[in-house]
Amino acid sequence: MSQLPLAGRRVLVTRAAHQAGKLSDGLRALGVEPVEVPVLEICPPASFDPLDTALRQIDSYNWLILTSANVVRVLRERAAVLGVALTQRASLQVAAVGSATAKAAIDAGIKVDFIPESYVAESLVEGLLGKVAGQRILLARAAVARDVIPDAMRAAGAEVDVVDAYQNAIPEAAPEQLRRALAQGIDAATFTSSSSATHLAEAIGKAGLPWPLPGIPAISIGPITSQTLRELGWEPAAEANPSDIPGLIAAVVKALPKES
After folding, report:
1. Largest distance between two CA atoms of the chain
2. What sign results for the dihedral spanned by CA atoms 176, 179, 184, 185?
3. Comparing C-alpha atoms, which of 86, 131, 134 is closest to residue 108?
4. Mind listing the pLDDT tens digit for each residue in 92-114?
5. How many other CB atoms are found less than 10 A from the CB of residue 51?
6. Are 215 and 235 in contact (CB under 8 A)?
7. Is residue 260's pLDDT more than 70?
8. Beta bridge partners of 141
9. Three-class SS of residue 78?
10. In angstroms, what CA-CA distances link 98 with 38, 68, 78, 184?
11. Backbone angles phi, psi at 57, to 5 degrees
């Protein structure tokens, strides 16, 4: 018998294909078979013009707020296209919503000045509120995102430019991949963002499958994703704390105790 705590369990991983590795590898280390069905793919925004305009004027901003590693990647790519350097700008402070975003920024040569204690927008807002009055802020994010950060920053007296760095889409193959995965059985489903929850619900609908998935625990990366799951009618069985991939893996262990 395997000594791995979750040997033989199958866990649904809904992350975009290029981001699934860390979660899947961590689950494998526990004996889990990760079942990767990406319900998100990262696509260009409707137009790069607003982002490009902001990057050309990067020296006019006091703060740059980074909301995901995907944002960092797109900023790096667009800055290279435009011939704009994002590194070593003493006048620009950078806030990252979490440790993974901060690591992506540091790897891109961008100094990070602030990371919130909890990796959610509300915690970032709380940490910055006393620092942004009269400041110009550039917030780059996904095309469809909550307005918690810009609304709070503006209420605190900041001028905020919000630009789309990318948009999420449902991969065409997702519904059929879900049918196959569920036919073979899964023991839990993981969610790394609100978008992963809403997109899975849509893909499940396209596949003609029941929602929520009967008898399958949903495991959420944090309170906002949990809230979205509840709004969609699926009560999470466990929630990561902290709200990062290691925390999510620990939540999987909590939700799926070792079989005796």
Report:
1. 63
2. positive
3. 86
4. 999 998 888 999 999 999 999 99
5. 24
6. no
7. no
8. 164
9. helix
10. 22, 8, 22, 35
11. -110, 25
List phi, psi (to 5°) of 215. 75, 10
pLDDT tens, position by position, 235-245: 999 999 988 89
Domains, the chain, ordered by start: 10-40+170-255 (3.40.50.10090), 49-167 (3.40.50.10090)
Q: Tokens representing 23?
A: 């979660």
Burial of 259 (0-12, 13-18, 19+ CB in 10 A): exposed
Q: Which amino acid is at 18?
A: H
Q: SS3 for 133?
A: coil
Helix or strand run (H / E) with residue 10: strand 10-13
Dump pLDDT digits (tens) for 131-170: 899 999 999 998 877 788 899 899 989 999 999 999 989 9
Give the DSSP H/E element, type plus range, for residue 116. none
For residue 119, what pLDDT is reported?
Answer: 59
In the numeric block, which tokens belong to residue 228?
A: 């979205």
Say which amino acid occupies 158. A
